[in-house]
Write a structure and sequence with these properties.
The chain has 3 helices and 20 strands. The chain is mainly beta and about 425 residues long.
């Protein structure tokens, strides 16, 4: 049943029943927003030395087809020298979830920094099941939990002015799985358990947190292992029809180049490769959609639902070009395309191995204003939707930047203008 059909059905109910169903629909929307907001939590590969206070938000919806809505909202706060001159406090909040870290510089001399973090809250570890373009709400469920982390950030040197940084993180989280009001009664949930995570990576360059930050360049390589208390099965039937592995290994790479010329012309290119062993739905690479702030490593595929594809191996490329529409370069039209070759997680089916999409966006980017917005449309000829192919989508991304300093000189804050002139960058 489509969302429009659901609302029509609600309108015909008696007042008492209508109130109950409206409450359920509102709960569903809040749950979806929370899940996507948590996915958008920024996890830095090094301690950020800039003062930041940003509010990020967005929404994505398929056109003419039921499927996953993709709202997200979170606040990102970073404060160097908050408790001590050598410490930096980072906080990301997406109701009802918090991700925080206290970074301490030069703990290991000039060789490495250290971060101590904790995260937790609701809706962090749930699953939305999509099979051949069909959002199976009866097989979707919620997951709450959290845990601590300890990270070392090695200083690996420079290539010219470009820094090379590392990351070595050990973390753990407890996941408590619960049914949503739509989970099928015969669907067996996975057991609650602790999971340990080991991550190591090397990054040359990088990109600042936020919407469409240029210029930027990044070459990075990553490895991550999930160590769970025990292997488990869940789903339908005796013993379940899908599993959670007790150990999963992931390794992936990313190459990014983004540049904006003085005349407002811009270009961006990103390539991503990933693989691993014993990858399940909980550790899969997620591809799809046009939002770029709803995941630590977003894999854009226009015309698809946000993160609808669960892959165990993938190769992905994203290209975007844009041109300013006015002399002040506040308004920009962008054209973009993406493609991916994937091997799906066993038990899932996105409708094939080859996927592609293209689209266009209108962007408002004032130089000194607080507000940054983008409205995008995407189409995919390969997205499977019922008995046909062809998917359409709309995405809205917004950013409010209340405070930013230059990371090259954090003592000199950028003072934006006040009132509506500050908001619109006039």
């Amino acid at each position: 049943m489509s969302q429009d059909e659901e609302w029509i059905k609600v309108a015909k109910l008696p007042n008492c029943s209508r109130a109950i169903v409206l409450t359920q629909l509102a709960t569903r929307a809040l749950t979806a927003a929370s899940l996507l907001a948590i996915a958008a939590m920024p996890i830095r590969a090094q301690i950020d030395d800039a003062r930041r206070f940003q509010l990020e938000g967005g929404y994505e919806q398929g056109i003419g087809q039921p499927g996953l809505n993709a709202p997200y909202i979170y606040a990102y706060y970073n404060r160097p020298g908050m408790f001590h001159s050598s410490s930096t406090f980072r906080l990301a909040i997406a109701p009802p979830y918090v991700n925080s870290e206290l970074g301490i510089r030069n703990v290991f001399g000039h060789y490495a920094d250290m971060g101590v973090g904790i995260s937790g809250g609701g809706y962090a570890y749930g699953q939305n099941e999509v099979y051949r373009g069909d959002n199976r709400r009866g097989e979707s469920f919620l997951g709450h939990g959290g845990g601590p982390s300890l990270t070392a950030y090695p200083h690996l040197g420079h290539i010219g002015p470009v820094p090379i940084t590392g990351i070595a993180r050990i973390s753990a989280y407890y996941s408590d799985y619960v049914r949503s009001h739509q989970t099928a009664s015969q669907f067996v949930l996975p057991p609650d358990q602790w999971t340990g995570v080991l991550r190591a990576g090397v990054r040359m360059g990088g990109q600042e947190p936020g919407l469409d930050k240029s210029p930027a360049m990044e070459v990075s390589f990553w490895g991550e292992s999930y160590l769970r208390e025990h292997r488990a099965v869940y789903g339908y039937g005796y013993g379940g029809d899908r599993e959670v592995h007790d150990k999963t290994n992931l390794y992936w790479s990313r190459i990014l180049f983004s540049y904006k010329m003085k005349n407002g012309v811009r270009f961006e290119a990103i390539t991503n490769f990933g693989a691993g062993s014993q990858i399940d739905r909980f550790s899969a690479y997620r591809l799809g959609g046009m939002l770029t702030q709803n995941a630590e490593f977003p894999y854009v595929l226009p015309g698809y639902f946000s993160q609808e594809i669960a892959a165990r191996r993938f190769a992905h490329m994203y290209l975007r070009g844009g041109v300013a529409l006015d002399d002040k370069k506040k308004y920009t039209i962008n054209f973009f395309a993406a493609g991916a070759s994937i091997a799906p997680v066993i038990g899932t089916d996105p409708g094939g191995a080859q996927h592609a999409g293209a689209g266009a966006s209108f962007e408002f980017t004032p130089r000194k204003g607080a507000f940054h917005g983008m409205l995008a449309y995407g189409y995919s000829p390969t997205a499977l939707r019922g008995d046909r192919r062809g998917g359409h989508g709309l995405a809205l991304s917004m950013e409010l930047n209340f405070e930013t300093t230059s990371s090259r000189n954090a003592a000199l804050p950028m003072r934006n203008q006040t009132g509506m002139r500050w908001f619109l960058g006039q």
